[in-house]
Amino acid sequence: MSGVLCGDATLTAPWGLAVRGQRAAMVVYHIRSGNCCVRLLERGELISLAAGDLILLPRFYAHTVCDTPRTPAIPLEDIQQSQPAAPDLAEEWLRFMFSGGFVYGGGGQVTAITPIRFYLETSFPELILNTLPPFIKISKLSGIHAESISLIERQLRLVGSTGFFGQVSAIRLAEALLVTILTDHFLAEIRATRHEVFDVRDTVVTKAIGSMLHDVKEDWSAARLAKMSNLSRSAFVSRFVAAVGQSPSQFLTAIRMSKASDLLLKTDQPLVKIALAVGYGSEAAFNRAFRRSVGEPPGRFRERGQ
Q1: Predicted confidence band of residue 200 (pLDDT cuts 50, 70, 90)
Q2: Domains of the chain: residue spans and CATH
Q3: Strand 74-75 and strand 110-119: pairing?
């Protein structure tokens, strides 16, 4: 992730925003009060949202956000021109974006939204993006989800309002939020396909998956993850397999191979550098692991993708 913006919007009915698409970006809308709907223009799909809901658009396609499906949507750029003028200096502008509130509408029923934009690096695994649906909706955040997401949002505003200096911390917080959302999505998908009941809000499993997704090059052994969770190794592995359908080592290998595949196709980095980036101490060890998982050596995989 290369950057993040987070703010607060207070919208009064009737209101409608037309948002242009943006490459290499994602957007989250957290509905803190009121109701609204998001329409994906390319697909014509309408998603209704209520207080406590959260929606992630993994690919930042053009969309509208309105109080009702019938309200006309005005281009966001046009509306922003009527807002208090943002500072001209880049540093001050960044602080303003995190601390300034966006207010718009006709004076009716209030909807409060926290929008968060994630700006992705080119190294973000395309294979992960390709597995995601056009939108991910989490309904009625509660319990650990509500607490953790609200805490991340508060910290985002705090560190983001310090300007460029705060972007490093803000990006780490944004990554934690993204991991929370994607983990919930992936575990819900697994539950649906396996027709088994388990708690997708199980902090033991979500924390372990989040740690692995955050830094794939770390040595995430089952013993280390179990210790982090205050469980025995056997109890942790049993709990992980029951939820995910794979052992921790199998899951870690899968996400390592996803990142490695992306680096092979999108960059000209030497194999030894890619090996280190995804947690292998040598090019030979990486070659063996890649061949086992993908069915061919990384060099040949790269050649075929060019």
Answers
A1: very low
A2: 3-192 (2.60.120.280), 203-305 (1.10.10.60)
A3: unpaired
